[in-house]
Amino acid sequence: MIEKFVSLKAVAIPLDRGNVDTDAIIPARFLKTVKRTGLGEGLFHAWRFDESGKETPDFPLNMAPYRGGRILVTGENFGCGSSREHAVWSLMDYGIRVVIAPSFGDIFYNNGLKNGLLPVRLASGEVRALIGKVQGAPGSEISVDLPAQKVTGPDGTVYGFEVGSFPKECLLKGLDEIALTLEHEREIERYERDGKKRSPWLFLDI
Amino acid sequence: MASIIRKIWDRHVVTEREGGLCLLYIDRHLVHEVTSPQAFEALRLAGRKVRRPFSLLAVPDHNVPTSPDRLERIEDPDSRVQLETLRENAREAGITLFDMDDIRQGIVHVTGPENGLILPGVTAVCGDSHTSTLGAFGAVAFGIGTSEVEHALATQTLWQTRPREMRITAEGALGVGVSAKDLILAIIAKIGAGGGTGYAIEYAGEAVRGLSMEARMTICNMTIEAGGRFGMVAPDETTFAYLKGRPAAPGPGLWDDAVADWKMFFSDDGSFDHEESIDAARIVPQVTWGTSPQDSLPVTGVVPDPAGHPDPQVRERMERALRYMDLRPGTRLTDIPVDKVFIGSCTNARIEDLRAAATVAKGRKVANGVTAMIVPGSGLVKQQAEVEGLDRIFLDAGFQWRLPGCSMCLGMNPDRLKPGERCASTSNRNFEGRQGPGGRTHLMSPMMAVAAAVAGRISDVREVI
Asked: Do the Cβ atoms of B165 and B331 come closer than 8 Å?
């Protein structure tokens, strides 16, 4: 279920940390649900709230100028660790649609694309500069243009980014990827016919 | 000229788009209760069916309690719903389920291999990042999110970009008291938590060839902690001997053909994008001090000082980690006391891990004030350990002997740390809050964890045995 994404101009939230893992994005105790909805409550829970459940005033998501921000700008290896797609669902439930970082955990990156959360990889120095600019002018906006593959910073600086052509098309049109794959049904069947001949032990019931 | 990674990958390409995006055929798919319910639900809503139910195995592991009364009583209603949902989904789709009352139930990455489901040359996926464990058999095995679980259920395929290929060669032999866990922690410390991003990794070299299947699984398991997409070890006689006779492995009629095929999976020299090497003989037992698996040091070391680091961002990260872990720079690692000891998880809960732990626990006692638990990776591991009398050794030493599950690895079942508690753990992640909010984790091997339990503080197991 890909939520369509074309472009977005929104307040950017700086989260100046590297290796933000998916346990930090959403702790495991929030995963005991059979639904995809309502996970925003658990987002960055240990950082957003203190032990008594009160908001921590110095965490960026809680700071007045960044409230309602929809673009997260953060450090390298964002979303490393667990494969939990709940990390993406919680970010989206909170309202975030774009995460800009120098690098991402590979599973998180894929999970983002499958849901309509756009992960944008920029060079380390570019992310550093963006974080600096956003911190220098809290509440300022960043624009993200998927068709043009461009990010425009608060000061008008433009940064290009790469994204695969297939996931891009899926995001732009909000396509059902499974339906697209099923168009290859004949090739999948042919693969299975050949596979049964080549390695029959892989096609026994397990 | 191709690596084993490419050879197996190429064999599974159904079709390829420009830019190396491949529709990859999936041979084996494991599901557990936490990351699958939304996938089955979406399938139902779209009116789709599970395409090849017999390629799947369902096992509850993440939120099952490990207490003896778990069949009668699971207190958490949300966990009960997830477990019941897995049962219903498996039944409806005709998927084999190893439920809590089945001796084969256990951590999905332990129970899959021990039942012979994972074979050389297969593709295997699971909605769990530690699926990389299964690469120990010479398989392309990787963790996926729930949307991809749904895609694999419906189509038996996944769209995947080709990985870059890295080989890590470990020469020499591991010393006494040093295990596969120490080797992989040392590798992660060397290449970093993001060092494997975008890469598939083959582990090779004399030290790896000398490892059992259990130990190879420990290595491949933590590939994800270096950011790697998947890890693998080329199949050899050790692999074949492990598989022969397992329930889902090829039977006598197909065995010879299968082995002949599996022998084709090896890497040609010069086929990697990147090579790393490590001298296994020089590795000493490892312990993590921080909140990333890359924060690993020889147990003979001291807590590092951020002030000595030239990069301000690294300095800040280290300071944060030390604050969270409540540690001071310069403290000897062996002076750090522990409150809890956890031996278990998909990294270190197989029979060989328990045997290694038992050699250290035998005739010793868990220190006063320390709570130590052993959680076998599956019912079959537990049974085997009991046949060998390992449970007696652990119980006599004062360890708890529990039922199989993910347990204290991830803080979503009743086994978790309280805020501020410090744990010597054989699991795979020392992230903030991983074992429970405010909990502090030191990763180490099973032998090292027993040494910590006995001393009540982090200890060098080589001085104990």
From this structure: no
Please, are residues A49 and A122 in contact by the beta-carbon 8 Å criterion? no
Q: Show the tokens assigned to B93.
A: 């789709």
Q: Contact at 8 Å (CB) between B310 and B341?
A: no
| CATH assignment, B4-274 | 3.30.499.10
Residue (of B416, B460, B449) closest to B338 by Cα position = B449
Reported as a pLDDT band with limits 50, 70 and 90, residue B350 is very high
B56 SS3 class: strand
B85 touches chain A (CB under 8 A): yes
Mean pLDDT to the nearest integer, A81-99: 98
**Domain ranges, ordered by start, for chain B:** 4-274, 287-463
Euclidean distance between CA atoms B280 and B276, whole angstroms = 13
Superfamily of domain B287-463: Aconitase, domain 3 (3.30.499.10)
Give CATH for domain A7-175: 3.20.19.10
In sequence order, which residues have a C-beta less than 8 Å from that of residue B364 and are 6 or more positions away?
B397, B450, B454, B464
Put simply, whether B19 touches A (Cβ < 8 Å) is yes
**Touching A: B residues 170-229, CB under 8 Å:** 193-194, 197-198, 224-225, 227, 229
Q: Which two tokens stand for residue B233?
A: 């070890």
Task: Kindly tell me if the per-residue pLDDT of A205 is higher than 90.
Answer: no
Domain range annotation of chain A: 7-175, 176-206
Q: Which of A164, A195, A206 sits opposite B117 (nearest CB)?
A: A206
Q: What is the pLDDT of residue A147?
A: 98
Are residues B61 and B184 in contact, defined by beta-carbon separation less than 8 angstroms? no
Cα distance between residue B454 and residue B341, in whole Å: 10
CB < 8 Å to A23, chain B: 410, 429, 431-434
Q: Residue B313: list chain A partners with CB under 8 A.
A: 18, 75
Q: Please name the residue that has the structure tokens 């940064």.
A: A159
Q: Give every CB contact of residue B368 below 8 A, 6+ residues apart in sequence.
A: B456
Q: Would you tell me how many other CB atoms lie within 10 Å of the CB of residue B355?
A: 16
DSSP code of residue A180: H
Sheet holding B422-425, edge to edge: B400-401, B371-374, B340-343, B422-425, B440-443
Distance from CA of B8 to the nearest CA of A (A): 13
**Cβ contact B412–A28 (<8 Å):** yes
Instruction: Map tokens 């590798």 to a residue.
Output: B187
CA B439/CA B430 separation, integer angstroms? 9
Distances (CA, A) of B161 to B63, B135, B200, B276: 32, 18, 11, 23
Q: Of all residues in chain B, what percent carry a pLDDT higher than 90?
A: 97
Residue with tokens 């700086």: A14
pLDDT at B72: 87
Q: What distance in Å separates the CA atoms of residue A172 and residue B240, rounded to the nearest whole number? A: 48
- Is the whole model's pTM more than 0.90, yes or no? yes
B122 and A75 in contact by Cβ < 8 A? no
